[in-house]
Request: fold
Amino acid sequence: MSDKPILHGVNASPFVRKARIALAEKGIDYELVPVMPMGQSAEYMKKSPLGKIPCWEEGDYILPDSSCIIAYLERTHPDPALYPSDPKQFGRALWYEEYADTKLTEAVTTAFFNRIVKKMMNQEPDEAAVAASLVAAEPVFDYLDGEIADREVLVGSHFSVADIAVCSPFVNFAHAGESVDGSRWPQLVAYLARHLARPSFKSVIEEEKAALGTR
Ligand SMILES: N[C@@H](CCC(=O)N[C@@H](CS)C(=O)NCC(=O)O)C(=O)O
Reply:
């Protein structure tokens, strides 16, 4: 058995991807051990009591939750920093991460769930639910477009956990065949194009496309 740290989870989860992007940005080697987001074993539930993916395992150190994992990795591998050092910017970065993990993920993953996950389970997609989710996503895109404005990154002057968290669920949106309308949300579209082209995102996206058969 490998003595590399383990990230439990499957690659197309926006939260597993968050952790994977942080790991890639920091150049940390690890093994991705597949755990599906449903029907987990009792053994996995002991590691991740909320029954969610991802979960980090490093020797006898166990840590569930993408936000906790990235914050931990920042302490063990400070370079490159993924959190701003300025207290106010730090607070804003945590806010964007929270917004992305809740409101944004909910808004943009319905299409992925219906068209990709349900297909894997031999179920029909609910296109009415997808259409409703696209309408519900509009104020979320309005908010992000306004926050990004003409900034390169969401907070401060460096790519941070805020950018990882906001960009990650849009990968699921794209896997589901959806894209953000650049005539309505030009700043958001330019921002996503910029960051999803980073080597960390690119290699994970390619791997996911191959696994999902979406390329
Ligand atoms: N706050 C958690 C959320 C993780 C999460 O919701 N993961 C989903 C997969 S994308 C999951 O495991 N869902 C299973 C469940 O909710 O039972 C994190 O950031 O890691």
